[in-house]
Task: inverse folding
């Protein structure tokens, strides 16, 4: 269906939308054709900045625009379900920011809509598209460190974030877990799959969002993951994966690493570094490239970020929230029944 440039629509004009648009501008086979904001002036300013031909002051017009191949949804998490659902129902393909939605039920609804309308849908879990993370996974899958025993990963920001910030606002799906904890959880599940049991503990804000959360995921295989996220403490952002025959250490920024070190038992450490040709480590281009590859191939989901994987991550996030007692406005409950405590 997509023969020439892939024509992107951008839905929302905040921080990550600008970062993503800046990376799209650098891709010769991508074109930003339209942008939508809740305010027309914001859409116009954003469109002017990134060369979009059309600027809409509502989401519906963007969703209905037949000249758009794929919409990138970059609203706060609480609006992902509504924004992505609107686009899928109007026949657009969708790349939706992480966390995919507030909870498992909403992700299930989006996946069902994508299948019903035969559209492409992907969570913008850019870590899974990062070339060095893909290299790490390939090494682990090839048995470079034997059977995976433990995963450690953390992501914390010092802030301080004022109570009005989206990270502190329950109405916007605030808290450390959904915004930052989704990375350690997705990293552990990339290597070990969906856990068989989940335990967690958290410090909650007066508004009822998690300021920091620690979670232990475990697998019947004997694998365990100790994960931590925070919006009140700047952690190292490192990860390590220990196996029966070695270990991999990823330094700060494990979800977009510059390098990692593989220690096979009995051998000298081996360092793997990012290829400068892949662009700066902050680049979001790899997920955009993957979306465009999949669209050209006529695929409805990406093998790098499969929908089953995103559903499994949402199941874990729901289970953690059930344990720590975080519930967002309007949620009847989070569906964690499938994961043992
Ligand atoms: N991949 C990454 O590395 C990364 C990094 C940061 C954030 N994210 C994710 O991206 C999403 C947006 O984060 P951000 O940091 O860009 O946030 P942000 O700077 O606050 O921008 C979000 C944008 O969404 C729109 N918006 C704000 N409140 C809204 C509401 N109540 N309902 C609907 N739309 C609203 C606004 O755009 P308009 O005014 O144009 O409507 C706003 O500029 C979050 O889900 C976050 O987890 C991903």
Result:
């Amino acid at each position: 269906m997509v023969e020439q440039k892939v024509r992107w629509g951008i839905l929302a004009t905040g921080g990550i939308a600008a970062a993503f648009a800046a990376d799209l501008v650098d891709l010769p086979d991508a074109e930003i054709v339209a942008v939508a904001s809740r305010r027309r002036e914001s859409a116009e300013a954003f469109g002017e900045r990134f060369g979009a031909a059309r600027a809409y002051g509502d989401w519906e017009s963007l969703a209905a625009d037949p000249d758009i191949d794929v919409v990138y949804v970059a609203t706060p998490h609480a609006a992902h379900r509504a924004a992505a659902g609107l686009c899928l129902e109007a026949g657009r393909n969708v790349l939706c920011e992480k966390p995919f939605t507030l909870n498992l039920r909403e992700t299930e609804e989006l996946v069902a809509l994508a299948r019903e309308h035969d559209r492409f849908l992907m969570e913008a879990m850019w870590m899974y598209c990062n070339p060095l993370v893909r290299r790490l996974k390939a090494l682990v899958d090839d048995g470079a460190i034997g059977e995976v025993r433990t995963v450690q990963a953390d992501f914390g920001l010092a802030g301080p974030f004022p109570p009005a910030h989206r990270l502190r606002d329950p109405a916007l799906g605030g808290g450390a877990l959904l915004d930052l904890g989704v990375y350690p959880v997705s990293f552990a599940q990339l290597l070990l799959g969906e856990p068989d049991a989940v335990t967690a503990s958290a410090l909650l804000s007066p508004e009822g969002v998690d300021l920091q959360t620690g979670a232990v995921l475990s697998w019947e295989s004997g694998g365990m993951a100790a994960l931590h996220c925070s919006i009140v403490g700047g952690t190292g952002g490192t990860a390590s994966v220990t196996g029966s025959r070695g270990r991999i250490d990823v330094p700060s920024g494990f979800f977009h690493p510059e390098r990692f070190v593989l220690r096979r038992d009995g051998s000298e450490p081996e360092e793997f570094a990012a290829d400068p040709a892949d662009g700066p480590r902050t680049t979001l281009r790899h997920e955009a490239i993957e979306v465009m590859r999949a669209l050209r191939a006529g695929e409805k989901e990406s093998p790098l970020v499969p929908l089953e994987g995103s559903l499994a991550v949402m199941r874990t996030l729901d289970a953690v929230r059930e344990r720590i007692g975080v519930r967002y406005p309007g949620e009847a409950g989070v569906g964690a029944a499938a994961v043992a405590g």
Summary: The chain is about 30% helix and 25% strand. Residues 12-17, 37-39, 42, 74-77, 79, 97-98, 124, 126, 166, 172, 179 surround NAP (CB under 6 Å). The CA atoms of residues 39 and 239 lie 40 Å apart. The radius of gyration is 20 Å.
